[in-house]
Amino acid sequence: MEKKEQPPHILAVPTAPEHWSDSSKQSYAYQSPPREYSDRHYTCRHCRKAAVFTGQEQREAYEARKAYIWQARVLCAECFATRMQIEAELLACAHRWQTARAKCNADTPFLRRWHGLLQQHVDYGGSRDEGNTHMLLALLRGREC
Predict the structure, then answer these.
(1) Confidence of residue 142 (pLDDT cuts 50, 70, 90)
(2) Rounded CA gap, 59 and 37, in Å?
(3) In terms of Cα–Cα distance, which of 109, 96, 97 is closest to 140?
């Protein structure tokens, strides 16, 4: 007889609203806080996989990192890590552009890479950077593919 896999035991994670961010303390949730964090199931907006925002992760987010209490997860762990990597690379591109603009302007692979990162950032739920996108398209226009 085959043994069925049991779902992981969900532990009740008590809330401590006094540790929430100042902005969270101004929300309705602070007036009537939940007694415990419970697992929140969601679908990743990028890869469409099922994911869970566990009670323990919620406590860390809301009480340790001081994220706003109504903030919800929309990306799974893998897609979120990818987005963070994209954002780090975008910062590096912007810094490189600020410190060596003339050299970067002549570096077509760099410009293409930066433009690609801007597009990927939007794909992963990031905000669209219209200014840099238009600048890069103008710089790349007319260069060979």
Answers:
(1) confident
(2) 7
(3) 109
